[in-house]
Design a protein that fits this description.
The structure holds two protein chains of two kinds.
Chain A: E1 2-9, H1 13-24, E2 30-33, E3 49-51, H2 53-56, E4 60-61, H3 62-71, E5 79-82, E6 86-91, E7 94-99, E8 102-113, E9 117-119, E10 128-130, E11 135-137, H4 138-148, E12 150-151, E13 155-159, H5 163-174, E14 178-184, H6 193-200, E15 207-209, E16 211-217, E17 224-229, E18 242-245, E19 248-251, E20 255-257, H7 260-263, E21 289-291, H8 302-320, E22 330-334, E23 338-342, E24 345-346, E25 352-358, E26 362-372, E27 374-383, E28 389-393, H9 395-398, E29 402-410
Parallel strand pairs in A: 1-2, 1-8, 2-5, 8-21, 10-16, 11-19, 13-14, 13-19, 14-15, 22-29
Antiparallel strand pairs in A: 3-4, 6-7, 7-8, 9-20, 16-17, 17-18, 22-24, 23-25, 25-28, 26-27, 26-29
Helix pairs in contact in A: 1-8, 4-5, 5-6
Chain B: E1 2-7, H1 11-20, E2 27-30, E3 47-48, H2 59-78, E4 82-83, E5 87-91, H3 94-110, E6 115-118, H4 119-125, E7 135-139, E8 143-145, H5 147-160, E9 164-166, E10 174-176, E11 181-183, E12 187-194, H6 200-205, E13 214-224, E14 234-237, E15 247-250, E16 256-259, E17 263-265, E18 272-273, H7 276-287, E19 296-307, E20 313-316, E21 323-327, H8 333-349, H9 376-385, E22 392-394, E23 399-400, H10 401-409, H11 417-424, H12 437-447, E24 467-468
Helix pairs in contact in B: 1-5, 1-8, 2-8, 10-12
Classes of the chains: A alpha/beta, B alpha+beta.
């Protein structure tokens, strides 16, 4: 049987970074398994600019970012890639891979899950109306346009102000389609501020906050949608319906970490992130299986995905080298405005970065971190659910901590 | 001149065609949609009812009970899935328990196997039954199938044995000559069988004033992600005047379906989803607990055509000889279909062709290539024979390029994205085709030698791609 020190599932931004992290930490035998014909994952269809400001100090397109990152490892004999290879199953520390050349069983000392995320489909939001063609997730429309060169609609309406939806509003406008508007259920946008400016405002595309799509109508192809306003409890306001003609509805209503493979082997998932529950070494509830990137929790920026991937790769290398902490783990507990925390638990003894999101908009507030032996309030101004928050706690901060560590937002 | 023409390629039309394909007859099937099983057949509870529920002395009752007994053998013959998982009809109060007694009596009268369980006994088997369940009628002969798959398999095998199928063919006009019919001024047939589902009255009206009128009921369903451990039996509430109620149904592929509700509706072709979903949410909580609504991946609605006579209408026309009605086939029509087909063939059609013999040689279809249950070695062998079986296209359901090409290249093969999805599942998983749909579209365009902009999701007019980028719009 083929054997490697480390197998990384997914050759996108997280997987490439994990390979680099593991190599830099001493591993000499790393295999990256990628299902597509090339590395880069979803970056390959993200041809817009804005990637890499943190990592390379310049704005790159998705494919350029992937290439530049890949360049860091391409001449490295310790890291190999296989393409058009789909992992269909994990069994103990063995992965089963399907490729046109045949099936393979590959054994690994550690596995990193870097499988990215998928879009929440139309069926999951219970959209009312006809079963007509013309309702797409924004990412699928992006794949059709940027990879195949075709438009899924000419008159577009977009539900959800997630970043992919915003990017596609601009992209489809530039390719000649008419984007009529974007509806967002919440009273605030779910996309990055710069995308609202550059993708909507610059093209005079209206953003309907506190609105949602009530129903889709059409015989075989979408003909119009019913847009409806919601109140501050997100309940639909009767009588506020308006009919908007369009032949395509794009959905940008959320991303879900892709964890089918590890769910099947009983890795514990966090219902809040829908990714694995991990410790500060990115190790899941199953020893030797690590997770990072959008498969762990959905990120805003690829730069953060790469950073996380690198750290997970480094930790996986530590594990393979037998360099693991045996100290007791401390659990993070979130409440009052904090919707999740990654990692969900941690070992003391080093500086640690915590990533989380809040569940609504906070203007002036403080992140309150407390437990036995620690009580800290970190001032924050204007934090929103669409922007991932990071907090660094020093080794010394955590030194006297006992029991659980609590997180909340104080207004 | 055809011996027999069947209008409608739903489950009944296809099973009649399949049964007739065993004889030396020239058989034609006409279907107005671009695939089989597009009407009521394609959107329903996907189950084989035991026959406990229909009113006594109806055709619904007779054919349900017989159809249930025929299914396991039929599915084996067609090499498609049938899972005899059984069902519980659950009661939650005294009134419902009383109604359950009626069902128990009917089971006895109809020779349907059953067992009566207390609420706790039922919960010991199905822990996610609601705590309010006080009594359950267990019906082990209940089964689940994929209706689309059964229909496709029946039509495929019929076609392998000479039956012709014309898709995208709408019957607009029928003329009765002395001893044959002329359809749309071009097709001649001795016998005409009306299996037109929601349009069976329209077809009849082309020949005479229809003795029945179709009223459609809408049935709406929720589909949840793979949840093999949540539920193992079909769960019925005690039936009410409105119908069987909202069911929880495991599917052949391990998903859970919740539904249907039932609304009268005017529009016959329109599969609308809507307010009924809220109703289903409310109703299901009476029989089930811990319903994982966060695993919802798909919703769909089917139209259930019933006729104003209240029962199936299956007979040769009183006035027009050789015109056969197979009308009003609503629930339990899917279960009843094999029994209906058998009687229509043996009692009505074949006596008209008294000299006709069964074919000496009959070609069996090959089963769809299902890699789910293959061992590593079996898969390995398959990939060695054709590398396309090693190229995974649908990541959620793990469907290979080879499987997709196979369902396109067969008789009664897929021509649309939905057609591929119903035959071998890419797009049925948790991402609902978000990743693989563009790939499937490309494969269809290559295999069918069509431009990508001509590839449809489903019906006519449902083309996926409207223009190439930068095209003058």
């Amino acid at each position: 049987m083929e054997r490697h020190q480390l197998v990384i599932i997914g050759g996108g931004s997280a997987g490439i970074a994990a390979a680099l992290g593991a190599y830099e930490n001493g591993l000499k035998d790393i295999l990256v398994i990628e299902r597509e014909k090339e590395y880069g994952g979803i970056l390959q269809q993200c041809i817009h600019n804005g990637f890499g400001l943190h990592t390379f100090n310049e704005e790159l397109s998705g494919p350029a970012y992937a290439e530049k990152y890949y360049d860091l490892i391409k001449d490295n004999y310790s890291i190999s890639f296989i393409y058009e290879a789909a992992v269909t199953e994990i069994k103990d520390k063995c992965v089963i891979v399907s490729t046109p050349e045949g099936l393979k069983q590959i054994e690994a000392e550690a596995i990193v899950i870097a499988t990215g995320c998928r879009e929440r489909p139309a069926g999951a939001i219970g959209l009312k109306g006809n079963r007509c063609e013309g309702v797409y997730t924004a990412g699928t429309a992006q794949k059709y346009l940027n990879k195949q060169g075709y438009l899924v609609g000419k008159k577009i309406f977009i539900l959800g102000s997630g970043d992919i939806g915003l990017i596609m509003a601009r992209r489809m406008t530039l390719e000649g389609a008419k984007v009529i508007g974007v509806a967002e259920l919440q009273p605030y946008s779910n996309g990055l501020a710069r995308n609202i400016k550059q993708c909507l405002e610059d093209f005079d595309i209206p953003l309907y906050l506190s609105h949602t799509v009530e129903a889709v109508h059409g015989e075989s192809r979408l003909e119009y949608i019913t847009l409806i306003e919601v109140d501050d409890k997100l309940q639909k306001i009767e009588g506020s319906e308006q009919k908007i003609e369009c032949d395509c509805l794009l959905l940008s209503v959320g991303l879900i970490p892709e964890n089918t493979l590890i769910e099947e082997i009983g890795v514990k998932l966090d219902p809040r992130t829908r990714g694995a529950i991990v410790d500060d070494n990115y190790m899941t509830s199953v020893e030797g299986i690590f997770a990072c990137g959008n498969a762990l929790h959905v990120h805003d920026l690829v730069d953060y995905v790469s950073q996380e991937g690198k750290k997970a790769g480094k930790a996986a290398a530590d594990y393979v080298s037998g360099n693991v902490s045996s100290s007791e783990k401390i659990a993070n507990v979130v409440s009052n405005g904090v919707s999740y925390m990654v990692p969900q638990s941690f070992h003391k003894g080093k500086d640690l970065e915590f990533m989380f999101r809040v569940n609504r908009v906070f203007k002036d507030c403080a992140i309150h971190v407390y437990g036995e032996g620690l009580d800290k309030k970190l001032k924050k101004v204007g934090i929103v659910p669409s922007e991932m928050q990071k907090v660094l706690l020093k080794k010394e901060d955590l030194e006297n901590l006992k029991g659980e560590l609590h997180w909340e937002v104080l207004e | 001149m055809y011996d027999i023409t069947i209008i409608g390629a739903g489950i009944t039309g296809s099973l009649i065609a399949h049964g007739l394909s065993k004889y030396d007859l020239k058989v034609l099937v006409l279907e107005k949609e671009n695939d089989v099983a597009e009407g009521a057949t394609g959107a329903n509870s996907a189950m084989v009812h035991s026959g406990h529920d229909p009113k006594p002395d109806t055709l619904k009752c007779r054919y349900n009970v017989i159809g249930n007994r025929m299914y396991p053998e039929l599915c084996k013959e067609l090499q498609v899935d049938f899972l005899g998982i059984g069902a519980f009809v659950v009661a939650t109060d005294d009134i419902e328990e009383e109604k359950l007694e009626t069902l128990i009596r009917q089971c006895e009268e109809r020779d349907i196997p059953f067992e009566v369980l207390s609420g706790d006994e039922a919960r010991a088997i199905e822990p996610n039954l609601s705590d309010g369940v006080t009594k359950a009628l267990s019906l082990p002969s209940t089964g689940i199938i994929m209706p689309f798959e059964v229909t496709i398999a029946a039509m495929e095998e019929a076609m392998l044995n000479g039956v012709e199928l014309k898709l995208d063919y709408e019957v607009k006009k029928i003329d009765k000559q002395k001893d044959y019919f002329v359809i749309n001024d071009e097709i001649e047939t001795k016998v005409l069988i009306n299996c037109a589902g929601a349009h069976c009255d329209d077809i009849t009206n082309m020949l005479r004033t229809s003795p029945y009128k179709v009223i459609t009921r809408k049935g709406e369903y929720f589909v949840l992600d793979h949840l093999e451990d949540y539920l193992h039996h079909v769960i019925y509430p005690t039936p009410s005047l409105k119908g069987k109620g909202v069911l929880a149904i495991p599917t052949v592929h391990g998903n859970i379906m919740l539904g249907p509700n039932s609304d009268e509706t005017e529009d016959r072709d329109d599969d609308a989803t809507g307010s009924g979903l809220d109703y289903i949410r409310k109703e299901i909580n009476k029989t089930m607990k811990n319903v994982p609504f966060n695993k919802l991946i798909h919703t769909f609605a089917g139209l259930r055509p019933h006729i104003d006579l209240g029962d199936f209408y299956i007979k040769e026309d009183d006035v027009i000889s050789n015109f056969i009605h197979v009308a009003g086939i609503e629930s339990p029509g899917l279960t009843a279909a094999p029994a209906i087909a058998k009687d229509v063939i043996n009692d009505i059609v074949m006596p008209k062709f008294a000299d006709c013999k069964a074919k000496a040689e009959y070609v069996r279809r090959k089963p769809f290539i299902d890699m789910r249950h293959m061992s590593f070695e079996e898969k390995q062998k398959l990939v060695e024979s054709d590398p396309d079986f090693g190229k995974i296209i649908c990541r959620c359901e793990k469907i290979s390029l080879g499987q997709i090409k196979d369902v396109i290249r067969r008789k009664c093969g897929a021509t649309t994205i939905k057609g591929v999805k119903m035959r071998c599942r890419p797009g049925m998983g948790r991402c609902q085709g978000g990743f693989c749909e563009p790939e499937v579209l490309k494969i269809l365009s290559e295999e069918l030698h069509k431009d990508v902009t001509d590839i449809k999701l489903d019906r006519d007019g449902s083309n996926v791609l409207l223009a190439s980028a930068k095209e003058e719009l």
